[in-house]
User: What shape does this take?
Amino acid sequence: MRLRLILLVAMTALTAACGGGEPDTSAAAADDGPAKPVASWGAEGGFVTATMNVLRPPRTVLYGDGLVIADASKQLTLTDAETDEVVARMQEYLGGQPPTAAPKPGAPSVTDVPDTVLGVRGKDGKMLEVRVPALEQLADFYPKQLLDAKKLMEGLATRAAAEGTDYVVARVRLVADEAPSAEGEPSPWPEGVPEPSGVVDPVWQKDVEGAAASAVTKAVPAGQEYGRSLFKTSSGETFVLAWRYLLPQE
Assistant: This one.
């Protein structure tokens, strides 16, 4: 990477010295890779189905270029100033917190609910994450900073839903759940989409892009009812298909 950058700079300087046209920076941009998250809020664990566990995206992700993606379905772009403010506040709220927060003594026992996961990219460039078990149920037993961090990211999700646009990309995560006794008439497996292979335990998943992703989204429109997502493979097995759009870093 460093060598390629040096060569690129040298070629750009040589072109300028020879009176060439505008330098082509597309190669440099491509080397940057996908946008990096700088703040996030999500949930993990809890008593949920295997399909939901695989498909569940972060509730909100803020990227360094100001892009906000909520629930892998809505997006908006913040200004540089807004992005910097969110990151600074999240660093303040999460700084000094342990990797897994513990409620104050006397908190009641809460089971089968997801952990809240809050994250921010620190000044050292590393992502700091704090896991908070049962934050909503035990809000009074946790430091106020953790609640403030959740509210800040929750506000971005609400804003994205109200002011943003649909988040649509040509990359999706596909999940197939075996359903041999499900009611309803299964449709033929979508053409061009990989079929489940190997042992399905508990679900089969695959990330697809391009034509395969388009075939999935057309065959199983977002919001379809469970019974209408039945598909039969070429070998005669019946599955329920579900999917979501992939985030830039996935």
